[in-house]
Amino acid sequence: MYKVAxxxxxxxxxxxxxxxxxxxAWVLPGQSYTFIDLSPVNYTSEVQAMxxxxxxxILPAVFTIGPFDxxxxxKKYAKLISSHDKNSSHVKELVQGIIEGETRVLxxxxxxxxxxxxxxxxxxxxxxxxxxxxxxxxxxIYNANVK
Length: 147
Hints:
- The chain has four helices and eight strands; from the N terminus they run βββββββααααβ.
- By secondary structure, it is α+β, with helices and mostly antiparallel strands.
- The chain has a three-stranded antiparallel sheet, with helices on one face. Strands 6-7-8 form a three-stranded antiparallel sheet, covered by helices on one side. A two-stranded antiparallel sheet has the order 1-4.
- It is elongated.
- The model has no long low-confidence stretch (mean pLDDT 82).
């Protein structure tokens, strides 16, 4: 049977040595296949953090995150995440845990003045730290807004 994925989907094949990711594929009898949705999802969070001076603050943030369109990243995503619905609580908790953890660690090393004076630098640092963690799951930050 010949299968073709839609524009924002890919097909992974099982029953072969490793996962193969294709846009079109022949599916032999006994083989299974899965369509992977590549569209990104928005994750909104209000991170409760504490500065180096031990002053608590709430940092609202919105991240648009989805699978990264490179073969190695797509393989990681297919193996680790795609078996779950991307809107499932498992994926949401994973992503939000990474965002909150990295933001708290970074905020704890900065004073309130550094955080709010250098908003662009703080946002870039958060973005870089979160992206480093998401790489291991084949995910990519398409957009991030720290309010």
